[in-house]
Specification:
The complex is a heterodimer of chains A (264) and B (325). Chain A is α/β, with parallel strands linked by helices and 264 residues long. Chain A is built from nine helices and twelve strands. Chain A has a domain of 75 residues. Helices cover 35% and strands 26% of the residues of chain A. Chain A has a six-stranded mixed sheet, sandwiched between helices. In chain A, strands 2-1-4-5 form a four-stranded antiparallel sheet, with helices on one face. In chain A, strand 11 and strand 12 form a beta hairpin. In chain A, helix 3 packs across helix 4, helix 3 runs parallel beside helix 5 and helix 5 packs parallel to helix 6. With 325 residues, chain B is mainly alpha-helical. The longest helix of chain B has 32 residues. The N terminus of chain B is likely disordered. The chains are: A alpha/beta (264), B mainly alpha (325).
Chain lengths: 264, 325
Protein backbone atom coordinates (compact mmCIF):
# COMPACT_ATOMS: atom_id res chain seq x y z
CA UNK A 1 0.00 0.00 0.00
CA UNK A 2 1.27 3.48 -0.81
CA UNK A 3 1.28 6.33 1.62
CA UNK A 4 2.26 9.95 1.46
CA UNK A 5 1.23 12.85 -0.71
CA UNK A 6 -0.74 10.77 -3.20
CA UNK A 7 -3.27 9.26 -0.80
CA UNK A 8 -5.52 10.90 1.71
CA UNK A 9 -4.05 10.53 5.18
CA UNK A 10 -6.77 8.90 7.25
CA UNK A 11 -7.08 5.86 9.48
CA UNK A 12 -9.39 3.88 7.19
CA UNK A 13 -8.61 4.53 3.52
CA UNK A 14 -11.46 5.64 1.29
CA UNK A 15 -13.13 2.82 -0.65
CA UNK A 16 -12.69 4.89 -3.78
CA UNK A 17 -10.75 8.05 -4.20
CA UNK A 18 -10.83 9.87 -7.52
CA UNK A 19 -8.25 12.60 -7.44
CA UNK A 20 -8.41 15.48 -9.94
CA UNK A 21 -9.05 13.20 -12.95
CA UNK A 22 -8.99 14.63 -16.45
CA UNK A 23 -9.81 12.60 -19.54
CA UNK A 24 -10.00 13.52 -23.20
CA UNK A 25 -11.31 11.66 -26.23
CA UNK A 26 -9.30 13.41 -28.92
CA UNK A 27 -10.09 17.10 -28.54
CA UNK A 28 -13.25 16.41 -26.54
CA UNK A 29 -12.85 16.73 -22.79
CA UNK A 30 -14.93 14.06 -21.03
CA UNK A 31 -13.74 14.48 -17.46
CA UNK A 32 -12.57 17.85 -16.23
CA UNK A 33 -10.92 17.61 -12.86
CA UNK A 34 -13.23 15.19 -11.05
CA UNK A 35 -12.69 14.82 -7.32
CA UNK A 36 -14.67 12.17 -5.50
CA UNK A 37 -14.34 10.20 -2.29
CA UNK A 38 -16.48 7.15 -1.50
CA UNK A 39 -16.41 5.82 2.06
CA UNK A 40 -16.41 2.07 2.71
CA UNK A 41 -19.92 0.61 2.72
CA UNK A 42 -21.37 3.73 1.15
CA UNK A 43 -23.84 3.59 -1.75
CA UNK A 44 -23.14 6.36 -4.22
CA UNK A 45 -25.42 7.08 -7.14
CA UNK A 46 -24.08 9.14 -10.04
CA UNK A 47 -26.69 11.10 -11.96
CA UNK A 48 -26.29 13.33 -14.97
CA UNK A 49 -27.43 13.94 -18.53
CA UNK A 50 -26.15 11.61 -21.26
CA UNK A 51 -22.69 12.52 -22.45
CA UNK A 52 -21.89 14.13 -19.09
CA UNK A 53 -19.03 11.70 -18.43
CA UNK A 54 -20.65 9.54 -15.73
CA UNK A 55 -19.93 6.22 -17.45
CA UNK A 56 -16.38 7.32 -18.19
CA UNK A 57 -15.89 8.21 -14.53
CA UNK A 58 -17.04 4.72 -13.55
CA UNK A 59 -14.74 3.10 -16.11
CA UNK A 60 -11.80 5.14 -14.87
CA UNK A 61 -12.28 3.65 -11.39
CA UNK A 62 -11.42 0.11 -12.58
CA UNK A 63 -9.02 1.39 -15.24
CA UNK A 64 -11.06 0.32 -18.27
CA UNK A 65 -10.28 3.94 -19.21
CA UNK A 66 -6.97 5.51 -18.37
CA UNK A 67 -7.08 9.07 -17.00
CA UNK A 68 -4.76 11.53 -18.76
CA UNK A 69 -4.20 13.49 -15.57
CA UNK A 70 -4.97 12.51 -12.00
CA UNK A 71 -5.26 9.15 -10.31
CA UNK A 72 -7.70 6.77 -8.68
CA UNK A 73 -7.17 4.68 -5.60
CA UNK A 74 -9.34 1.89 -4.26
CA UNK A 75 -8.99 0.97 -0.60
CA UNK A 76 -5.82 3.06 -0.52
CA UNK A 77 -4.22 1.25 -3.45
CA UNK A 78 -3.43 3.20 -6.62
CA UNK A 79 -5.23 1.75 -9.65
CA UNK A 80 -3.36 1.11 -12.89
CA UNK A 81 -0.28 2.99 -11.77
CA UNK A 82 2.41 2.87 -9.12
CA UNK A 83 4.35 5.58 -7.39
CA UNK A 84 7.97 5.92 -8.31
CA UNK A 85 9.53 8.88 -6.50
CA UNK A 86 7.14 11.71 -7.28
CA UNK A 87 6.00 10.23 -10.59
CA UNK A 88 3.26 7.79 -11.55
CA UNK A 89 4.25 4.80 -13.68
CA UNK A 90 1.89 2.50 -15.54
CA UNK A 91 1.51 -0.94 -13.98
CA UNK A 92 1.98 -4.18 -15.90
CA UNK A 93 -1.11 -5.63 -17.59
CA UNK A 94 -1.04 -8.58 -15.20
CA UNK A 95 -1.01 -6.30 -12.14
CA UNK A 96 -3.89 -4.21 -13.52
CA UNK A 97 -5.93 -7.37 -14.17
CA UNK A 98 -5.27 -8.49 -10.59
CA UNK A 99 -6.53 -5.12 -9.32
CA UNK A 100 -9.65 -5.33 -11.51
CA UNK A 101 -10.46 -8.75 -10.09
CA UNK A 102 -10.99 -7.03 -6.74
CA UNK A 103 -13.48 -4.53 -8.22
CA UNK A 104 -16.82 -5.78 -9.51
CA UNK A 105 -18.24 -4.22 -12.67
CA UNK A 106 -21.74 -4.64 -14.10
CA UNK A 107 -22.34 -3.48 -17.67
CA UNK A 108 -25.37 -1.90 -19.26
CA UNK A 109 -25.42 -4.68 -21.91
CA UNK A 110 -24.64 -7.50 -19.43
CA UNK A 111 -21.76 -8.80 -21.61
CA UNK A 112 -22.22 -12.36 -20.43
CA UNK A 113 -20.11 -14.94 -22.25
CA UNK A 114 -22.68 -16.42 -24.68
CA UNK A 115 -20.81 -19.69 -25.30
CA UNK A 116 -20.70 -20.62 -21.60
CA UNK A 117 -23.61 -21.79 -19.49
CA UNK A 118 -24.90 -19.48 -16.79
CA UNK A 119 -23.10 -21.55 -14.17
CA UNK A 120 -19.79 -21.41 -16.06
CA UNK A 121 -20.18 -17.66 -16.57
CA UNK A 122 -20.29 -17.19 -12.81
CA UNK A 123 -17.59 -19.77 -12.00
CA UNK A 124 -15.12 -18.68 -14.71
CA UNK A 125 -13.39 -15.80 -12.94
CA UNK A 126 -12.58 -17.50 -9.60
CA UNK A 127 -11.08 -20.44 -11.51
CA UNK A 128 -9.18 -18.33 -14.08
CA UNK A 129 -7.66 -16.11 -11.40
CA UNK A 130 -6.72 -19.23 -9.41
CA UNK A 131 -8.64 -18.27 -6.30
CA UNK A 132 -10.75 -21.41 -6.20
CA UNK A 133 -10.52 -24.93 -7.57
CA UNK A 134 -13.19 -25.80 -10.10
CA UNK A 135 -15.54 -27.73 -7.74
CA UNK A 136 -15.43 -24.97 -5.11
CA UNK A 137 -16.05 -22.35 -7.79
CA UNK A 138 -19.06 -24.25 -9.11
CA UNK A 139 -20.45 -24.54 -5.61
CA UNK A 140 -19.98 -20.81 -5.05
CA UNK A 141 -21.59 -20.09 -8.42
CA UNK A 142 -24.66 -22.18 -7.48
CA UNK A 143 -24.94 -20.34 -4.18
CA UNK A 144 -24.71 -16.93 -5.89
CA UNK A 145 -27.24 -17.90 -8.55
CA UNK A 146 -29.57 -18.85 -5.73
CA UNK A 147 -29.00 -15.46 -4.17
CA UNK A 148 -30.11 -13.65 -7.35
CA UNK A 149 -33.05 -16.06 -7.70
CA UNK A 150 -31.78 -18.03 -10.68
CA UNK A 151 -30.76 -21.36 -9.17
CA UNK A 152 -32.91 -23.18 -11.74
CA UNK A 153 -31.17 -21.51 -14.70
CA UNK A 154 -27.65 -22.81 -14.00
CA UNK A 155 -27.53 -25.00 -17.11
CA UNK A 156 -29.05 -22.45 -19.51
CA UNK A 157 -27.11 -20.34 -21.96
CA UNK A 158 -27.34 -16.55 -21.55
CA UNK A 159 -29.30 -15.99 -24.79
CA UNK A 160 -32.03 -18.28 -23.51
CA UNK A 161 -32.71 -15.85 -20.65
CA UNK A 162 -34.62 -12.58 -20.47
CA UNK A 163 -32.69 -9.31 -20.13
CA UNK A 164 -33.49 -9.03 -16.44
CA UNK A 165 -32.31 -12.59 -15.79
CA UNK A 166 -29.11 -11.96 -17.77
CA UNK A 167 -28.35 -8.87 -15.71
CA UNK A 168 -28.89 -10.82 -12.51
CA UNK A 169 -26.43 -13.45 -13.77
CA UNK A 170 -23.98 -10.63 -14.54
CA UNK A 171 -24.32 -9.42 -10.95
CA UNK A 172 -23.71 -12.95 -9.65
CA UNK A 173 -20.65 -13.15 -11.92
CA UNK A 174 -19.28 -9.92 -10.44
CA UNK A 175 -19.96 -11.21 -6.91
CA UNK A 176 -18.04 -14.45 -7.55
CA UNK A 177 -14.75 -12.62 -7.01
CA UNK A 178 -16.06 -11.32 -3.65
CA UNK A 179 -15.21 -7.72 -4.49
CA UNK A 180 -15.26 -5.10 -1.76
CA UNK A 181 -16.72 -2.64 -4.21
CA UNK A 182 -19.05 -3.03 -7.18
CA UNK A 183 -19.54 -0.53 -10.00
CA UNK A 184 -22.84 -0.51 -11.93
CA UNK A 185 -22.92 1.17 -15.33
CA UNK A 186 -26.60 1.88 -16.07
CA UNK A 187 -27.60 -1.68 -15.07
CA UNK A 188 -31.26 -1.30 -16.08
CA UNK A 189 -31.04 0.92 -19.17
CA UNK A 190 -31.14 -2.00 -21.63
CA UNK A 191 -34.14 -3.63 -19.95
CA UNK A 192 -37.85 -3.63 -20.71
CA UNK A 193 -39.68 -1.58 -18.05
CA UNK A 194 -41.31 -4.60 -16.41
CA UNK A 195 -37.90 -6.26 -15.90
CA UNK A 196 -36.23 -3.28 -14.20
CA UNK A 197 -37.67 -4.10 -10.78
CA UNK A 198 -36.10 -7.57 -10.42
CA UNK A 199 -32.61 -6.18 -11.09
CA UNK A 200 -33.06 -3.19 -8.79
CA UNK A 201 -34.20 -5.44 -5.95
CA UNK A 202 -31.00 -7.51 -6.25
CA UNK A 203 -28.94 -4.31 -6.11
CA UNK A 204 -30.98 -3.15 -3.11
CA UNK A 205 -30.09 -6.37 -1.28
CA UNK A 206 -26.42 -5.68 -1.98
CA UNK A 207 -26.76 -2.11 -0.73
CA UNK A 208 -27.99 -3.31 2.64
CA UNK A 209 -25.25 -5.96 2.87
CA UNK A 210 -22.50 -3.38 3.41
CA UNK A 211 -20.77 -3.69 0.04
CA UNK A 212 -19.53 -0.39 -1.37
CA UNK A 213 -21.56 0.42 -4.48
CA UNK A 214 -21.12 3.10 -7.12
CA UNK A 215 -24.13 3.17 -9.44
CA UNK A 216 -24.68 5.15 -12.60
CA UNK A 217 -28.40 5.17 -13.31
CA UNK A 218 -31.38 7.10 -14.59
CA UNK A 219 -33.76 5.59 -12.05
CA UNK A 220 -34.29 8.59 -9.78
CA UNK A 221 -36.78 6.81 -7.53
CA UNK A 222 -34.33 3.97 -6.98
CA UNK A 223 -31.54 6.48 -6.29
CA UNK A 224 -33.60 8.19 -3.63
CA UNK A 225 -34.37 4.88 -1.96
CA UNK A 226 -30.95 3.28 -1.99
CA UNK A 227 -28.32 6.02 -2.13
CA UNK A 228 -26.36 7.36 0.83
CA UNK A 229 -25.08 10.04 -1.46
CA UNK A 230 -26.00 11.39 -4.85
CA UNK A 231 -23.41 12.90 -7.14
CA UNK A 232 -24.67 15.07 -9.99
CA UNK A 233 -22.25 15.39 -12.85
CA UNK A 234 -22.50 17.56 -15.96
CA UNK A 235 -20.02 18.37 -18.68
CA UNK A 236 -17.26 16.31 -17.04
CA UNK A 237 -17.50 18.10 -13.71
CA UNK A 238 -19.21 17.27 -10.42
CA UNK A 239 -21.83 19.98 -10.05
CA UNK A 240 -23.04 19.02 -6.61
CA UNK A 241 -23.25 16.08 -4.26
CA UNK A 242 -24.92 15.17 -1.00
CA UNK A 243 -27.64 12.99 0.55
CA UNK A 244 -30.67 12.31 -1.70
CA UNK A 245 -32.94 14.58 0.34
CA UNK A 246 -30.63 17.47 -0.35
CA UNK A 247 -29.66 16.92 -4.00
CA UNK A 248 -33.02 15.66 -5.23
CA UNK A 249 -35.36 17.88 -3.20
CA UNK A 250 -33.35 21.04 -2.62
CA UNK A 251 -30.79 21.19 -5.44
CA UNK A 252 -28.48 24.16 -5.12
CA UNK A 253 -27.48 24.50 -8.75
CA UNK A 254 -29.47 25.62 -11.74
CA UNK A 255 -28.17 22.70 -13.86
CA UNK A 256 -29.24 20.11 -11.30
CA UNK A 257 -32.71 21.69 -11.06
CA UNK A 258 -32.92 21.74 -14.84
CA UNK A 259 -31.93 18.03 -15.14
CA UNK A 260 -34.30 16.90 -12.38
CA UNK A 261 -37.21 18.83 -13.87
CA UNK A 262 -36.71 16.86 -17.10
CA UNK A 263 -36.45 13.37 -15.60
CA UNK A 264 -38.88 13.55 -12.68
CA UNK B 1 -60.94 0.12 -51.06
CA UNK B 2 -62.56 1.09 -54.39
CA UNK B 3 -65.83 -0.87 -54.18
CA UNK B 4 -68.78 0.71 -52.41
CA UNK B 5 -69.24 -0.68 -48.91
CA UNK B 6 -72.37 -2.56 -49.97
CA UNK B 7 -70.43 -4.77 -52.41
CA UNK B 8 -67.95 -5.75 -49.76
CA UNK B 9 -70.77 -6.77 -47.49
CA UNK B 10 -72.36 -8.89 -50.19
CA UNK B 11 -69.07 -10.56 -51.14
CA UNK B 12 -68.35 -11.38 -47.52
CA UNK B 13 -71.72 -13.01 -47.00
CA UNK B 14 -71.75 -16.78 -47.64
CA UNK B 15 -73.45 -17.78 -50.90
CA UNK B 16 -76.89 -19.26 -50.55
CA UNK B 17 -75.84 -22.77 -51.62
CA UNK B 18 -72.83 -22.90 -49.28
CA UNK B 19 -72.20 -26.25 -47.56
CA UNK B 20 -73.41 -26.47 -44.03
CA UNK B 21 -69.80 -26.80 -42.79
CA UNK B 22 -68.53 -23.63 -41.08
CA UNK B 23 -65.77 -21.88 -43.07
CA UNK B 24 -63.43 -21.60 -40.09
CA UNK B 25 -63.43 -25.35 -39.58
CA UNK B 26 -62.07 -26.07 -43.06
CA UNK B 27 -58.42 -26.51 -43.99
CA UNK B 28 -57.12 -23.84 -46.38
CA UNK B 29 -56.28 -25.35 -49.76
CA UNK B 30 -52.63 -24.69 -50.62
CA UNK B 31 -51.98 -22.56 -53.73
CA UNK B 32 -51.28 -24.70 -56.85
CA UNK B 33 -47.97 -23.82 -58.52
CA UNK B 34 -47.95 -25.35 -62.05
CA UNK B 35 -44.76 -23.44 -63.07
CA UNK B 36 -42.86 -25.09 -60.27
CA UNK B 37 -44.05 -28.53 -61.35
CA UNK B 38 -42.93 -27.93 -64.96
CA UNK B 39 -39.46 -26.74 -63.89
CA UNK B 40 -39.12 -29.70 -61.55
CA UNK B 41 -39.93 -32.06 -64.41
CA UNK B 42 -37.36 -30.38 -66.70
CA UNK B 43 -34.63 -30.67 -64.07
CA UNK B 44 -35.48 -34.32 -63.42
CA UNK B 45 -35.29 -35.15 -67.13
CA UNK B 46 -31.94 -33.36 -67.49
CA UNK B 47 -30.52 -35.16 -64.43
CA UNK B 48 -31.68 -38.50 -65.80
CA UNK B 49 -29.96 -37.72 -69.10
CA UNK B 50 -26.68 -36.88 -67.37
CA UNK B 51 -26.76 -40.06 -65.27
CA UNK B 52 -27.70 -42.12 -68.32
CA UNK B 53 -24.81 -40.59 -70.28
CA UNK B 54 -22.34 -41.27 -67.47
CA UNK B 55 -23.50 -44.87 -67.19
CA UNK B 56 -23.75 -45.82 -70.86
CA UNK B 57 -20.99 -43.83 -72.61
CA UNK B 58 -18.15 -46.32 -73.21
CA UNK B 59 -15.69 -43.38 -73.17
CA UNK B 60 -15.73 -43.48 -69.35
CA UNK B 61 -14.71 -47.17 -69.21
CA UNK B 62 -16.33 -47.91 -65.84
CA UNK B 63 -14.82 -51.40 -65.79
CA UNK B 64 -11.33 -49.81 -65.78
CA UNK B 65 -12.52 -47.36 -63.11
CA UNK B 66 -13.40 -50.35 -60.97
CA UNK B 67 -10.00 -51.84 -61.65
CA UNK B 68 -8.09 -48.69 -60.57
CA UNK B 69 -10.29 -47.39 -57.76
CA UNK B 70 -8.75 -49.45 -54.93
CA UNK B 71 -5.36 -50.26 -56.53
CA UNK B 72 -2.64 -50.11 -53.80
CA UNK B 73 -0.52 -47.66 -55.88
CA UNK B 74 -3.39 -45.17 -55.97
CA UNK B 75 -4.20 -45.75 -52.30
CA UNK B 76 -0.55 -44.98 -51.48
CA UNK B 77 -0.99 -41.75 -53.41
CA UNK B 78 -4.20 -41.04 -51.49
CA UNK B 79 -2.31 -41.55 -48.24
CA UNK B 80 0.31 -38.99 -49.32
CA UNK B 81 -2.49 -36.54 -50.19
CA UNK B 82 -4.06 -37.04 -46.77
CA UNK B 83 -0.73 -36.69 -44.99
CA UNK B 84 0.25 -33.50 -46.84
CA UNK B 85 -3.23 -32.03 -46.31
CA UNK B 86 -3.36 -32.82 -42.60
CA UNK B 87 0.11 -31.49 -41.85
CA UNK B 88 -0.30 -28.33 -43.95
CA UNK B 89 -3.78 -27.66 -42.56
CA UNK B 90 -2.56 -27.93 -38.97
CA UNK B 91 0.67 -25.97 -39.49
CA UNK B 92 -1.12 -23.44 -41.69
CA UNK B 93 -3.83 -22.81 -39.08
CA UNK B 94 -1.26 -22.52 -36.31
CA UNK B 95 0.78 -20.07 -38.40
CA UNK B 96 -2.40 -18.23 -39.31
CA UNK B 97 -3.32 -17.77 -35.64
CA UNK B 98 0.15 -16.40 -34.86
CA UNK B 99 0.01 -14.07 -37.87
CA UNK B 100 -3.48 -12.86 -36.92
CA UNK B 101 -2.36 -12.17 -33.34
CA UNK B 102 0.68 -10.28 -34.66
CA UNK B 103 -1.57 -8.29 -36.99
CA UNK B 104 -3.84 -7.35 -34.06
CA UNK B 105 -0.99 -6.62 -31.64
CA UNK B 106 0.04 -3.21 -30.35
CA UNK B 107 3.50 -3.37 -31.93
CA UNK B 108 3.73 -1.62 -35.32
CA UNK B 109 6.68 -3.85 -36.29
CA UNK B 110 4.71 -7.05 -35.63
CA UNK B 111 1.72 -5.64 -37.48
CA UNK B 112 3.85 -4.66 -40.48
CA UNK B 113 5.67 -8.01 -40.53
CA UNK B 114 2.39 -9.94 -40.47
CA UNK B 115 0.90 -7.73 -43.19
CA UNK B 116 3.99 -8.13 -45.39
CA UNK B 117 3.97 -11.91 -45.00
CA UNK B 118 0.31 -12.17 -45.95
CA UNK B 119 0.82 -9.74 -48.85
CA UNK B 120 3.80 -11.74 -50.17
CA UNK B 121 2.37 -15.25 -49.92
CA UNK B 122 -1.03 -14.28 -51.23
CA UNK B 123 0.63 -12.67 -54.24
CA UNK B 124 3.02 -15.47 -55.24
CA UNK B 125 1.43 -18.48 -56.96
CA UNK B 126 1.67 -21.66 -54.89
CA UNK B 127 3.43 -23.52 -57.69
CA UNK B 128 6.17 -20.85 -57.72
CA UNK B 129 6.60 -21.17 -53.93
CA UNK B 130 6.87 -24.97 -54.23
CA UNK B 131 9.41 -24.99 -57.04
CA UNK B 132 11.34 -22.22 -55.30
CA UNK B 133 11.56 -24.34 -52.14
CA UNK B 134 12.50 -27.35 -54.23
CA UNK B 135 15.59 -25.45 -55.37
CA UNK B 136 16.14 -23.93 -51.93
CA UNK B 137 18.96 -26.26 -50.97
CA UNK B 138 20.99 -24.79 -53.82
CA UNK B 139 20.63 -21.32 -52.28
CA UNK B 140 21.36 -22.28 -48.66
CA UNK B 141 23.36 -25.47 -48.21
CA UNK B 142 23.04 -25.54 -44.42
CA UNK B 143 20.49 -24.30 -41.93
CA UNK B 144 21.68 -23.57 -38.40
CA UNK B 145 20.13 -22.68 -35.06
CA UNK B 146 22.09 -20.21 -32.95
CA UNK B 147 22.54 -16.55 -32.05
CA UNK B 148 21.63 -14.32 -35.00
CA UNK B 149 24.83 -13.25 -36.79
CA UNK B 150 26.70 -15.16 -34.02
CA UNK B 151 27.81 -18.74 -33.43
CA UNK B 152 25.57 -21.64 -34.41
CA UNK B 153 24.56 -24.38 -31.98
CA UNK B 154 22.97 -26.91 -34.33
CA UNK B 155 23.57 -27.19 -38.03
CA UNK B 156 21.38 -29.10 -40.47
CA UNK B 157 22.43 -30.33 -43.83
CA UNK B 158 19.74 -28.80 -46.00
CA UNK B 159 19.86 -31.38 -48.75
CA UNK B 160 19.08 -34.14 -46.24
CA UNK B 161 16.44 -32.12 -44.38
CA UNK B 162 14.58 -31.06 -47.49
CA UNK B 163 12.84 -34.26 -48.49
CA UNK B 164 10.06 -34.00 -51.05
CA UNK B 165 7.54 -34.33 -48.24
CA UNK B 166 9.13 -31.49 -46.26
CA UNK B 167 9.24 -29.22 -49.31
CA UNK B 168 5.58 -29.94 -50.05
CA UNK B 169 4.37 -29.44 -46.48
CA UNK B 170 6.46 -26.31 -45.89
CA UNK B 171 5.37 -24.77 -49.18
CA UNK B 172 1.68 -25.49 -48.65
CA UNK B 173 1.82 -24.38 -44.98
CA UNK B 174 3.51 -21.07 -45.87
CA UNK B 175 0.80 -20.42 -48.41
CA UNK B 176 -2.00 -21.68 -46.19
CA UNK B 177 -0.90 -19.57 -43.20
CA UNK B 178 -1.24 -16.38 -45.24
CA UNK B 179 -4.89 -17.12 -46.03
CA UNK B 180 -5.65 -18.62 -42.63
CA UNK B 181 -4.37 -15.47 -40.90
CA UNK B 182 -7.06 -13.40 -42.59
CA UNK B 183 -9.73 -15.98 -41.75
CA UNK B 184 -8.65 -16.03 -38.10
CA UNK B 185 -8.32 -12.24 -37.92
CA UNK B 186 -11.83 -11.86 -39.32
CA UNK B 187 -13.11 -14.30 -36.71
CA UNK B 188 -11.42 -12.51 -33.83
CA UNK B 189 -12.73 -9.13 -35.03
CA UNK B 190 -16.25 -10.55 -35.17
CA UNK B 191 -16.27 -11.04 -31.38
CA UNK B 192 -18.10 -8.19 -29.66
CA UNK B 193 -15.95 -5.56 -27.96
CA UNK B 194 -18.09 -6.01 -24.84
CA UNK B 195 -16.65 -9.52 -24.44
CA UNK B 196 -13.12 -8.13 -24.19
CA UNK B 197 -14.31 -5.51 -21.71
CA UNK B 198 -16.14 -8.03 -19.56
CA UNK B 199 -13.10 -10.32 -19.50
CA UNK B 200 -10.89 -7.34 -18.62
CA UNK B 201 -13.26 -6.15 -15.92
CA UNK B 202 -13.24 -9.60 -14.30
CA UNK B 203 -9.44 -9.52 -14.33
CA UNK B 204 -9.18 -12.75 -16.34
CA UNK B 205 -5.56 -13.39 -17.34
CA UNK B 206 -4.82 -12.41 -20.97
CA UNK B 207 -4.08 -15.97 -22.03
CA UNK B 208 -7.35 -17.22 -20.55
CA UNK B 209 -9.21 -14.35 -22.25
CA UNK B 210 -7.93 -15.49 -25.64
CA UNK B 211 -8.18 -19.26 -25.27
CA UNK B 212 -11.46 -19.48 -23.33
CA UNK B 213 -13.45 -16.34 -24.11
CA UNK B 214 -12.47 -14.78 -27.44
CA UNK B 215 -11.19 -17.65 -29.59
CA UNK B 216 -14.07 -20.10 -28.94
CA UNK B 217 -16.50 -17.38 -30.01
CA UNK B 218 -14.32 -16.48 -33.01
CA UNK B 219 -14.33 -20.13 -34.10
CA UNK B 220 -18.00 -19.84 -34.94
CA UNK B 221 -17.18 -17.58 -37.88
CA UNK B 222 -13.72 -19.07 -38.49
CA UNK B 223 -15.05 -22.61 -39.09
CA UNK B 224 -17.00 -22.12 -42.35
CA UNK B 225 -14.29 -19.89 -43.80
CA UNK B 226 -11.47 -22.17 -42.79
CA UNK B 227 -13.24 -25.25 -44.16
CA UNK B 228 -13.53 -23.36 -47.43
CA UNK B 229 -9.76 -22.91 -47.25
CA UNK B 230 -9.26 -26.53 -46.31
CA UNK B 231 -11.18 -27.78 -49.34
CA UNK B 232 -9.03 -25.52 -51.52
CA UNK B 233 -5.98 -26.97 -49.79
CA UNK B 234 -7.03 -30.59 -50.45
CA UNK B 235 -7.10 -29.79 -54.14
CA UNK B 236 -3.92 -27.67 -54.04
CA UNK B 237 -2.03 -30.71 -52.80
CA UNK B 238 -2.23 -32.00 -56.38
CA UNK B 239 0.49 -29.43 -57.15
CA UNK B 240 3.05 -31.36 -55.09
CA UNK B 241 3.39 -33.61 -58.14
CA UNK B 242 5.67 -30.86 -59.50
CA UNK B 243 8.12 -31.29 -56.61
CA UNK B 244 8.23 -35.02 -57.41
CA UNK B 245 5.97 -36.13 -54.56
CA UNK B 246 3.51 -38.76 -55.78
CA UNK B 247 0.16 -37.89 -54.26
CA UNK B 248 -3.21 -39.14 -55.50
CA UNK B 249 -3.17 -36.99 -58.62
CA UNK B 250 0.56 -37.57 -59.22
CA UNK B 251 0.10 -41.35 -59.07
CA UNK B 252 -2.83 -41.23 -61.47
CA UNK B 253 -0.78 -39.04 -63.80
CA UNK B 254 2.13 -41.50 -63.71
CA UNK B 255 -0.15 -44.49 -64.26
CA UNK B 256 -1.78 -42.62 -67.12
CA UNK B 257 1.62 -42.23 -68.77
CA UNK B 258 2.15 -45.98 -68.52
CA UNK B 259 -1.41 -46.95 -69.55
CA UNK B 260 -2.44 -44.17 -71.97
CA UNK B 261 -5.74 -45.89 -72.69
CA UNK B 262 -6.81 -45.57 -69.04
CA UNK B 263 -6.35 -41.80 -68.63
CA UNK B 264 -10.10 -41.08 -68.44
CA UNK B 265 -10.94 -43.77 -65.85
CA UNK B 266 -7.87 -42.72 -63.84
CA UNK B 267 -9.08 -39.10 -63.82
CA UNK B 268 -12.50 -40.37 -62.74
CA UNK B 269 -10.91 -42.28 -59.86
CA UNK B 270 -9.11 -39.10 -58.77
CA UNK B 271 -12.35 -37.07 -59.09
CA UNK B 272 -14.34 -39.53 -57.00
CA UNK B 273 -11.68 -39.66 -54.28
CA UNK B 274 -11.55 -35.84 -54.08
CA UNK B 275 -15.36 -35.82 -53.90
CA UNK B 276 -15.24 -38.28 -51.02
CA UNK B 277 -12.62 -36.23 -49.14
CA UNK B 278 -14.56 -33.00 -49.59
CA UNK B 279 -17.78 -34.67 -48.46
CA UNK B 280 -16.11 -36.03 -45.33
CA UNK B 281 -14.80 -32.56 -44.51
CA UNK B 282 -18.29 -31.10 -44.99
CA UNK B 283 -19.78 -33.63 -42.58
CA UNK B 284 -17.15 -32.81 -39.97
CA UNK B 285 -17.80 -29.10 -40.59
CA UNK B 286 -21.51 -29.54 -39.81
CA UNK B 287 -20.80 -31.05 -36.40
CA UNK B 288 -17.99 -28.60 -35.54
CA UNK B 289 -20.26 -25.67 -36.41
CA UNK B 290 -23.05 -27.20 -34.40
CA UNK B 291 -20.70 -27.52 -31.42
CA UNK B 292 -19.63 -23.89 -31.57
CA UNK B 293 -23.22 -22.72 -32.06
CA UNK B 294 -23.95 -23.64 -28.44
CA UNK B 295 -25.23 -20.51 -26.76
CA UNK B 296 -25.17 -18.47 -29.98
CA UNK B 297 -28.61 -19.65 -31.01
CA UNK B 298 -31.48 -20.43 -28.71
CA UNK B 299 -31.71 -23.99 -29.98
CA UNK B 300 -29.16 -25.99 -31.95
CA UNK B 301 -29.78 -26.81 -35.62
CA UNK B 302 -31.03 -30.43 -35.96
CA UNK B 303 -28.64 -33.15 -37.14
CA UNK B 304 -29.56 -34.91 -40.41
CA UNK B 305 -30.86 -37.88 -38.40
CA UNK B 306 -33.09 -35.62 -36.29
CA UNK B 307 -34.29 -33.86 -39.46
CA UNK B 308 -35.10 -37.23 -41.02
CA UNK B 309 -37.07 -38.31 -37.96
CA UNK B 310 -39.02 -35.03 -37.89
CA UNK B 311 -39.81 -35.35 -41.61
CA UNK B 312 -40.97 -38.92 -41.10
CA UNK B 313 -43.20 -37.92 -38.21
CA UNK B 314 -44.64 -35.06 -40.29
CA UNK B 315 -45.37 -37.42 -43.17
CA UNK B 316 -47.06 -39.94 -40.92
CA UNK B 317 -49.25 -37.26 -39.37
CA UNK B 318 -50.21 -35.93 -42.79
CA UNK B 319 -51.18 -39.37 -43.99
CA UNK B 320 -53.30 -39.90 -40.89
CA UNK B 321 -55.00 -36.52 -41.40
CA UNK B 322 -55.70 -37.19 -45.08
CA UNK B 323 -57.09 -40.60 -44.19
CA UNK B 324 -59.40 -39.09 -41.59
CA UNK B 325 -60.92 -36.58 -44.05
Amino acid sequence: MTTGALTVPQAVPAAVEVHDVHKWYGAHRVLDGVQLTVRPGEVTVILGPSGSGKSTLLRVINHLERPEIGYVSVNGELIGVKRSGDRLKELSERAILAQRSRIGFVFQNFNLFPHLTVLDNVAAAPVATRRLAKPAALELARELLGRVGLADKAGAYPRQLSGGQQQRVAIARALALRPGIILFDEPTSALDPELVGEVLSVIKDLATSGTTLVIVTHEIGFAREVADRIVFIDDGRIVEQGPPAQVLDKPQHERTRDFLSKVL
Amino acid sequence: MTEPPGTVFLAAAPPADAPSKVLSAQRVQPLRRPGRWILTAVVLVLSAQIVHGLATNTFYQWDRFGYWFLRPTLLDGLLITLEVTALSAALGLFGGILLALARLSGSPVLRAASWTYTWLFRSVPLIVVLIFLYNFSALYQTLSLGIPFGPAFVTFDESRLATDMTVAVVGLSLNEAAYASEVVRGGILSVDQGQHEAADALGLPKRYQFTRIVFPQALRSITPNYVNQLIGLIKSTSLVFYVSLLDLFGTAQTMGATYPGDIVPLLLVVTVWYLILTSLVSVVQFYVERYYARGATRSLPPTPLQKFRTALRGLRERVRREAAV
